[in-house]
Amino acid sequence: MSYTKTKGWGIASQGAVSTHGISPPEGVAAGDRVLVDSVATDDFATHDNEIAEWTGAAWVFSAEIAVGDTVFVESESKNFVYTGTSWTSTGGGGGGGGSAPIARSFLVEFNGANFEIDEVPNANAELLRGFTYEFIDALLDEGPDHPFIISTTSEGAALATSLPSDPEDYDYYVDGDNIIFRPSHDAAITSYYYHCENDTEEGGTILLSTLGEHDEGGGAIINPYVFTQGNDGIFDKRAIIFQENQG
Considering the domain 102-242 in this protein, what is its CATH number? Predict the structure, then answer.
């Protein structure tokens, strides 16, 4: 298995592993990597939460892991994030299974002319495939004249409701006044759009990226759990980059 550790802003994607478990799997080949679960046994004992790589003769362990690091587990087609005590699934893989933890929550407001996300009007957003996002108060204050929706086109209708158990390439459903949205890890679509159902000029674009696909120094999208704000007016979410729409 080829592997390149991708870094950005001190946060790392640990690449991909074939599977995870508390003990070595059978039938491994040289180069195969395994995420070691907690309370590990056999050759994995004392290596909880580390990443093991089979050399062909022995297991070699990497302990260079920090809070917020991410890894993609191929056997489950899911991303996992390290919380400091364990690796937690963030979902992925085409919509099957139960609901995933929220990777990032965003406050949606209508300022009388445009939708704002975290106080940025007409923000363009870049999200990671396979992660779950929550748009808080998306259905609260906009009123009947400004319904907030997410669509596949800039002038399209709202996505059909799709629960985590449905075989769609996204999750999209209402939770109180909030909208829950997760593009699947293998989603073929490259962008979605959010806007008012009655006025397409009141929203922005949602671009999709894949975990670790950007190079160091080139705006790497690494970790959806970390949030900073730069001094240049650009909201750098690492997994979500908001920039004021210049169009």
Answer: 2.60.40
